Amino acid sequence: MHHDEGTILGIDIGSVSIAAVTLDASGSVLGRSYAFHGGDIEAALARIDKELELSRVRAVAMTGRPLTELRADARYESQVAALESVRARYPCAAAVLVVGGEKYSLARFNLEGEYLGSRSNSGCAAGTGSFLDQQAGRLGLADSPELAGIALINRDEPPKVATRCAVFAKTDLIHAQQEGYSLAAISDGLCRGLARNLVDALFNEDPIRGQVVFTGGVALNDAVLERVRTLSGLDVVRDGEAACHGAIGAALLFLGEGREGSPFVSASALRRSIPLDRSGFHPPLSLHSSGYPDFHAHESYLEKTSARGSRPGAEVEVDVYEPAPAVLEAWLGVDIGSTSTKSALVDRAGRMVAGFYTRTSGRPVEAFQALLEAMERLGERKGFRLDVIGCATTGSGRKFIGGIAGADLALDEISAHARAAIELDPGVDTIIEIGGQDSKFTTLRDGRVTSSIMNNVCAAGTGSFIEEQARKLGVGIGDYADLAAGVSAPRVSDRCTVFMERDINHLLAAGCTVPEVLAAALHSVCENYLRKVAAEKNVGDVVFFQGATAKNRSLVAAFEQRLGKPM
Q: How far apart are CA 9 and CA 11, in angstroms?
């Protein structure tokens, strides 16, 4: 087929969507297709076959994710492809803003149209389409376009949502709903927050003089478009090809090279079957040198407490470790965290008599009340009266709850964790502590804290991250450790929790089992912690693993395997 007779099929495979276009020899767009793929590339290619006229295709130009199982006549870097398309249509544009499912960037040009440089995001989903997709699901909406439509009708002051991290935003959404904000206001708050992230990250250099072209899947979001315009004060434009510029650019680049293509059958036929290579997997997760407590060696039960205000009755996990006398004189320790609230009763001999655990759910007062009720009922059940001889609080809500409880002491979590560890083993020199929304690394010498590092701006590598992956895979958090035990896992990056969700889709599509993906997420938590929180060279010989995540035996095994030391 002569160059002038055939068409070029341009395909842009993003992290969450796939765009395809056909171009004639002059570079005109003949047809386009854009849809979310959910990790199922095979189904996405079949959709392209149905939606586009492909009988005259002479070559395939591809950009986006470098999927080796897909054949193409040429591949191009995604930003280069997008800029090629935009510059062909907007030769005088001062900047091009590209916001997709996992990445965003801003490329700038001078008055002569010469490229000045670009800025892009780190490995965080804040400011990307995946962030909005996940929040839409949490709000019970079909997708981010529905969220955008609802956001546009909001006329009330929106809540402030922590758009710096998708997992932390979940907590803010719960709080906003409890405070009575409407769905429209919450949706607006999310879109405004995302737009603010983009503007703060990309538009804080020299002022832009001229038009900014907005492209990528997020450009289809009218609410984000309006907020970016308002916050930046710039002339931000979007056209009907916003989601397809990458695919168009790939086809244009191929046309410009004047190359021959290869015989084309269909989009579906571009996919080659490549068997899953497990040779590079992590070794199976199992404990060899670490001690692990038997969490079933004591009495444990769930206490359903009374409803309080608008909060339904809470479930409190009660663990009884020691028998109590008729009058139990005990110190009460309370840890009020963003995810959970815990309390412990310690007798005068320093023995842990009972422990109590419940979800905070954005209501620390009600959570504390639920623990007190569970303590009272334990006394009734066991026939003792509780006499609290002292009270100390820790955690993010330590001062607030400490004031209500009349606590004798409110101390930071680092000191509290260190004091408990030293009580168990005076020789402890390292504490790995992973909580629901933050993680800490503490070193000690001679019973004193010598350094501590905390990570609280990224949820990857926290308990919330693990819960998110379990929920996505339909696994109960209580079954997670057993399913991942003894399982080898593919190597994945220590990714942002939103991006890990995309990795899960692709791992499953590649043939990985659910247990293998669960194990991969645990290795990801371990790598993230050791890269972003801990100074690995400072990990000592007596290592304590603390926090609720330490109950996951397979996560303990991942740390033991990675560090080569007992936990």
A: 6
